[in-house]
Amino acid sequence: MTSRSVTLLDVARAAGVSKSTASDALQGSGRVADATRERVQAAARELGYRPNTAARSLRRSSTGAVGLHLPRTATRLDYYMNLAFGAVERARADGLDLVLLAPGTASGGGLASRVDGLLVIDPEVDDPEVPDLLGAGVPVVTGERYLGGGVAPSGAVVCDNAASLAALLDHLAQRGARRPALLVPGPGSDWAAALHAAADAWSRRRGVGVAVRTVPFAATPAEAEAATADLIGGVPGLDAVVCAPDGAVNGVLAGAARAGLRVGSDLLVAACVDGAAAWGSSPQVTAVDLRAAEYGRACAALLSDLLSGVAEPGVVRRHEWALNVRESTAGRV
Fold it and tell me: How many CB atoms lie within 10 A of CB 318?
């Protein structure tokens, strides 16, 4: 049975309750026993029930829209644009409009009157808008956890970024790398903090130090090239570089070329975020595929489930990644 064919009456029958009780249980209204609410929600999840959000917004005088907040420096990055397109697609399927929030949107209050919920992606601890967004009075789903404390989000979709970097470093070691380096932003976001922790844990586990260089969250190719040149000149035996920021890996390739190193043999190169910069380069670069569009869809789906009462506040859902191996890590000569 497809999600479009499942009705509220189907859910009510599966849970053994009346249609009105099922509605109250899913919307968090009325006097419904906890056990009954859990049974209805379980039936809705099992059947794949998706409420008619547009009709519900008319009944409840809500806006029928949700907001999307991206990192301040993310507007030029492929990863976040693909994520946004995925979120728009899923929100539209659930009868919701998605609005990209401009800087300063959260200040001054009133956000709850304009949107029914919020998606806050890769919230950074030094982003002054995030606390206001979390306290806006509407359900909030974060893409990755927020490390700043205060008001907790209603839910989160997370990826095991520590595991993805560990797998990438293991791959480099298998291809002959003995002295890897990592270009990574400071630990102001859950994603970057996980990469720092993973590099440290991998170094201790393997007995091989990972040389870490801090670069901006949205490092440009020029900034990555300068950091790579610094590593090549300052780290004896450097034989692999992992570039964390999206779109900056071409700078690593340029730094290697300027030093006369052949990528894929003299210097192995990999990226923590796959995209056009990785697969469109020469040679193509091994990278972690975070499946940005699917991630955006997952975040929007969780927010829709929270708005409809299908999901409980505090839920955390996992998002899977994959490693795409290409010529840039062919192997040390």
Answer: 10
CA 137 to chain centre: 23
Q: Is the pLDDT of residue 50 over 80?
A: no
Which single residue is written with the structure tokens 């949700």? Answer: 66
- The fold for domain 161-290+323-329 equals Rossmann fold (3.40.50)
The model's pTM is: 0.82
pLDDT of residue 59: 45
Sign of torsion over alpha carbons 302, 306, 308, 312: positive
Contact 157, 123 (CB under 8 A): no
- Helices assigned H by DSSP within 105-148: 129-134
**Sign of the C-alpha dihedral computed for residues 57, 130, 72 and 229 taken in this order:** negative
Domains 3-49 and 161-290+323-329 share a fold: no
Taking only the tens place, the pLDDT of each residue in 165-188 is 999 999 999 999 999 999 999 999
Read off φ and ψ for residue 267, nearest 5 degrees. -135, 120
State residue 181 phi and psi, 5-degree precision.
Answer: -135, 160
Domain residue limits, the chain: 3-49, 63-159+292-320, 161-290+323-329
Options 1.10.443.10, 1.10.260.40, 3.40.50.300, 1.10.287.110; CATH for 3-49 is 1.10.260.40
- Predicted confidence at residue 280, as pLDDT, reads 95
Instruction: With beta carbons less than 8 A apart as the criterion, state whether 120 and 146 touch.
Output: yes
Distance between CA atoms of residues 140 and 17, nearest Å? 30
**Residue 310 pLDDT greater than 80, yes or no:** yes
> Domain 63-159+292-320, what architecture?
3-Layer(aba) Sandwich (3.40)
